[in-house]
Design a protein that fits this description.
The complex is a heterodimer of chains A (508) and B (131). Chain A is α/β, with parallel strands linked by helices. Chain A folds into two domains: 6-291 and 446-507, FAD/NAD(P)-binding domain (3-Layer(bba) Sandwich); 295-440, Flavocytochrome C3, Chain A, domain 1, CATH 3.90.700.10. The N and C termini of chain A lie far apart (49 Å). The radius of gyration of chain A is 24 Å and the shape is elongated. Chain A is built from 15 helices and 22 strands. In chain A, helix 2 (55-66) links the parallel strand 2 and strand 3 (72-75). Chain A has helices spanning 17-26, 55-66, 98-102, 109-119, 126-146, 174-187, 247-253, 272-279, 306-313, 335-343, 361-364, 369-375, 385-392, 396-412, 490-507, and strands at 44-46, 48-51, 72-75, 91-93, 165-167, 190-192, 195-202, 208-215, 226-232, 236-238, 284-285, 290-293, 318-321, 326-327, 356-360, 379-382, 434-438, 442-446, 449-451, 457-459, 466-472, 477-478. Chain B has 131 residues and is an alpha+beta fold. Chain B has helices spanning 3-21, 42-46, 74-80; strands spanning 29-32, 35-38. In chain B, strands 1-2 form a two-stranded antiparallel ribbon. The radius of gyration of chain B is 15 Å and the shape is elongated. Classes of the chains: A alpha/beta (508), B alpha+beta (131). Chain A binds chain B through residues 1, 3-4, 7-8, 11-17, 19-20, 79-82, 86-87, 170, 172, 174, 177-178, 181-182, 193-194, 218, 221, 223, 301-304, 376, and chain B through 1, 3, 6, 55-56, 59-67, 69-71, 89, 96-99, 101-103, 106, 120-121, 123. The complex binds flavin-adenine dinucleotide (FAD). Residues 51-57, 75-78, 82-85, 87-91, 173, 196-197, 239-241, 264-265, 268, 270, 272-273, 303, 445, 474-476, 488-491, 494 of chain A line the site of flavin-adenine dinucleotide.
């Protein structure tokens, strides 16, 4: 039985006895970020070092390999890979895509950028948006090469002027992450879990030379791991995602986002690496623009099933204030507009009064999430309007009139109430039987983060020049989306900026 | 020795012990000397072989991730908890978000209660899961 220690040796990543020694070491005074290179004892040496294994990190690693890098390592602090990305809804906006061409839909990177600029309310960085939109097809191709499969039709999400959104067949970002992880393994890219990035290490010239990584870190189990100084020849990419789960940080930006507001993110969205970038001089951008998702449900935890269900169905549904039986918003306005409208719905005592969203069963059943919504009882099916109104305590007559009125807009193609684009609702009258869910916003996405340029270089606040050797991409960065990100625009952002970082690093 | 053969040998001797002492209550958390442990691993505790999971016989820290696969065969494990096609990614040992990449201890506690990773966000039914 002695050879058992060799079995799966590659997966037995660390001697965990290191964990305890590490805890003691970390208790000492922390190293300064500016260490003389001569004094650093390097524990490991790699060509490319990536921190974070979501869309951004994995896309960077694969692109770096394609460009000839032979020693690439991706670290993640969690016991597994994929961060927010593997819980994501799998919606991926691509302008000028193969599916658009097949369906004769006219689109361009400029048009997608214009839609995003509008949602960004004047604060979005157009150069970054256009860069991402112009390269989104390459990112789509990278996922297809890895084996991702997409639904055969496009969706038109809130704030987008044309249908341009792909969705994985799983309706989940895992449909991209699992293949990308497999691809990394095939290409010999090293993937290391339980490895937490602590701080940056600079050389005398002020170039990022590497990082201190706590190896054998156990998230949530009080084991800090052993610090190892890891050197990276071509620089370091920070791809650590957002900070939606860091209540201190998010409520410092927006005091309404206390611990009582739920989030769609997994607990790894801590933003600690972002704070380390700020500590060495990165420019904080748009930190207070923290997006809440108007399609979430108060009847389940996290993103749940209702989110993807509502994202698909809003275009041909009515959202109703249960008090009045009337619509109160354009169901496919951008996220901020809709969240604000929902948050305004209150009982007399100020407590939340979640609206209901009504869809025809015939239309809802076209998307795979409807079955889940009904099965897990976070949505309900009704044969008549009477049953529906009794269940939610909605006044029947006003609702009847509202639906009739709305069906008129479906027919005319013009929403005279809220100006909703009716293209995707064509022929989809609200009729029995109905499927109904409740909606209420949850903290979803951090528009803010560290400033970068179109080469994924992190900008320093001392001289407004790139900090040499330091790159960042994805949700940890800020600026691209301004006040409000449009749905399905993070996947292209993350993947393209990851690929961009790899391209820049390989030129360095 | 192949892992599968190791398990077979273990099962045979383990079953012998379980039957002999008639203490079989699958998966329960039980006291073995100074330590809590799982009844299905009783034999490991009887033999004081902490190092069948840990790096040494007087452990102070967590065992390596996936050390359990020294005895449990991954392919068989994935099959044992496989589900019908429309639920196939609910298989905890080959799941939607992580495939086969979740360390065993993220769901199975050995000396403590088990906490299922998926439970926070889903309510899938796992009848054979032992707290
Ligand atoms: C539920 C949900 C659904 C969504 N749906 C969509 C959608 O359909 N379409 C869309 O475009 N966008 C969607 N988004 C947004 C999008 O998924 C995220 O913005 C995106 O996944 C972020 O990717 P990333 O690569 O920047 O970071 P992440 O995927 O979050 O990865 C960051 C990784 O870094 C690790 N990490 C963090 N700190 C450290 C550290 N100090 N050391 C080491 N590792 C660290 C984390 O563990 C994590 O694995 C959704 C988001 C959520 C939460």
């Amino acid at each position: 039985m002695d050879n058992k220690k060799d079995y799966q040796a590659d997966r037995r990543r660390f001697l965990v006895s290191m964990g305890v020694a590490g805890a003691a070491t970390l208790a000492g005074p922390s190293l300064s970020a500016m260490v003389n290179e001569g004094e650093v004892e390097w524990g490991e040496d790699h060509e490319i070092v990536v921190i974070g294994s979501g869309f951004t990190g994995l896309a960077a690693a694969i692109e770096a390999h394609k460009l000839g890098a032979t020693d690439i390592v991706v670290y993640d602090m969690m016991p597994y890979f994929g961060g927010n990305s593997t819980y994501n809804g799998g919606l991926f906006a691509v302008p000028d895509s193969p599916l658009q061409k097949e369906n004769g839909i006219e689109d361009s990177p400029e048009r997608m950028t214009a839609d995003q600029v509008l949602a960004g309310r004047g604060l979005a960085y157009q150069d970054l948006l256009l860069h991402v939109a112009s390269h989104a097809n390459e990112a789509l191709q990278m996922t297809l090469d890895a084996g991702t499969e997409y639904l055969p039709y496009l969706q038109q999400l809130g704030g987008h002027s044309v249908p341009r959104t792909y969705q994985t067949i799983e309706a989940c970002g895992a449909g991209i992450i699992r293949p990308l992880v497999e691809q990394c393994r095939k290409l010999g890219i090293k993937l290391v879990t339980r490895a937490k990035f602590k701080r940056l290490i600079f050389n005398k010239e002020g170039t990022v030379e590497g990082a201190e990584i706590a190896m054998g870190y156990y998230f949530g189990r009080d084991v800090d791991g052993t610090p190892v100084n890891v050197r990276s020849k071509r620089g370091l990419l920070i791809a650590t995602g957002g900070f939606a789960r860091n209540v201190g940080l998010r409520s410092a930006q927006d005091p309404t986002l206390t611990e009582e507001v739920p989030s769609t993110n997994p607990p790894s969205a801590t933003g600690e690496a972002l704070l380390e970038m700020f500590r060495v001089g990165a420019v904080p951008v748009h930190m207070a623009y923290i997006q809440t998702g108007p399609w979430a449900s108060p009847d389940e935890d996290g993103f749940g099933y209702v989110s993807n269900y509502s994202i698909y169905n809003f275009a041909h549904s009515v959202s109703i204030n249960v008090r009045t039986g009337k619509r109160f918003m354009n169901e496919i306005a951008d996220r901020k507009t809709r969240s604000d409208a929902q948050l305004a719905l209150r009982n007399d005592d100020g407590s939340p009064l979640p609206p209901i969203t009504i869809t025809s069963f015939e239309d809802a059943k076209e998307h795979p999430t409807m079955e889940k919504v009904l099965k897990y009882k976070v949505g309900w099916k009704f044969d008549t309007l009477e049953e529906l109104t009794a269940h939610f305590n909605v006044p029947l007559e006003p609702l009847k009139a509202q639906i009739e009125e709305y069906n008129g807009y479906v027919k005319s193609g013009m929403d005279e109430q809220f100006g909703k684009p009716m293209g995707k609702a064509e022929g989809k009258y609200i009729r029995a039987p109905f499927v109904v869910v409740r909606n209420w916003p949850k903290v979803h996405y951090c528009q803010g983060g560290a400033q970068i340029d179109v080469h994924a270089r992190v900008i320093g606040s001392d001289n407004w020049q790139p900090i040499p050797g330091l790159y960042a991409g994805g949700e940890v960065t800020g600026g691209m989306h301004g006040v409000s990100r449009l749905g399905s625009c993070s996947i292209p952002d993350c993947m393209v900026m990851g690929m961009t970082a790899a391209r820049t690093m390989m030129k360095s | 020795m192949k892992p599968q053969m190791i398990l077979t040998v273990f099962i045979m001797s383990a079953l012998a012990v379980f039957t002999a002492e008639n203490t079989f209550s699958a998966g329960a958390l039980k006291q073995f000397g100074d330590h809590m442990g799982r009844s299905h691993h009783a034999l490991l505790y009887k033999r004081q072989s902490c190092d069948s999971c840990h790096e040494n016989s007087e452990p102070t820290a967590f065992p390596a991730d996936f050390v359990c696969l020294d005895c449990h065969d991954e392919v068989e494990l994935v099959q044992a908890t496989a589900r019908p096609e429309e639920e196939k990614w609910q298989n905890p040992h080959n799941n939607m978000h992580y495939g086969k990449d979740v360390p065993c201890m993220e769901c199975h506690g050995e000396h403590r209660e088990s906490e299922l990773l998926c439970a926070g966000c889903h309510s899938f039914d796992y009848p054979d899961f032992k707290k």
